[in-house]
What we know:
Largest sheet: 8 strands, parallel
Distance between the termini: 26 Å
Low-confidence stretches: none
Helix content: 25-40%
Amino acid sequence: MYHHTRVFIDLAVFEANLRLLSSLLPPGCRLCAVVKADAYGHGLAQVAPLAIRAGASYLAIAENWEARIVREMEIEVPILRLRPATADEVDEGLAWRIEEVVGSLAAAQRLSQVGERRQQRIPVHLSLDVGISRMCFPFPYSKEEIERVLEMPGIEVVGVMAHYPGADEEDMAQTEQQITQFEQGTEALFGKRRLLFHTANSAAGLAYPRSTMQMVRFGIACYGYAPSEAIRLPEGIRPVMTWKSTIVEIRRVPAGSTIGYGRTCLLREARQIATLPIGYADGYLRAFSNQASVLVHGVRCPVVGRVSMDMVTVDISEAGAVAVGEETILLGQQGQEVITAEELARLAQTIHYEILCLAGQCNTREWLAAP
């Protein structure tokens, strides 16, 4: 079935990004590709095999269905869930061999009970707090509490992790201090015990060499974006997603006319206005009203009037001769002009992660095959 608005995922670019990121890691350091949220809207089933081919030896998910898809594709690498799970989720997830995150004594006890009931030991990663305070054993770490977890019969501790709350910010001193806190804390808690220690996401992995330890959890960087303006991407990393729509109507609108709900746009002169079949139901946020631009013939054309549920109006007066049926770029490059997820995120006062997830999950996707 034809769709006027589509998201294109360049799998060759995704694989190239992963290979580049993998090449930056020190010897012996593993790459965990974060593919939760349907691979940030890029399509879990399509990108997961390429992540493995490009060097990932772990995959990180959030939901059981994500782990099921991975296992049904006969991918055998470890799968790490990046959030606490309910007992029911853990019980169901045993079939797909998910490694769970534990951040409290109570959570460990719940998982151990599931493991004992099912007569198996559930692999878990202990999460230690370094300032994010959401699912972690609090600092100062209790050796007695950790030792109780290590002795529980229904679980097996295979890893120890943390997550830095400010690794993507310009002030680096606090994150450096948190890395030291984790290093000193784990040495006191675990000594020479052989476990997988990992704390770095994309931001920390790119900006803090000390944080790479034994594994880096690369998320947003896989998909071609820096975690924030404070973090520089390696040269060669490119965005994977392009979001396109089609012009379905063009009309000459006279001066003095208003456009859209609420009449928020008043034309001071006659303009060529195009209508696109996309709106906030498709993830193109209402916050883009009278702010965002789309690309037509490689020219930035402003969104005029309010974004409605399934239509957007755009001023194409500067784009030359434009016809109904022509392509527009909502996210991506056309000619020399580029619209990035960061740009759209700033307009909506959100983060580019959200833009990518919404675009991918709310629209028909097409995957451009990797070689």
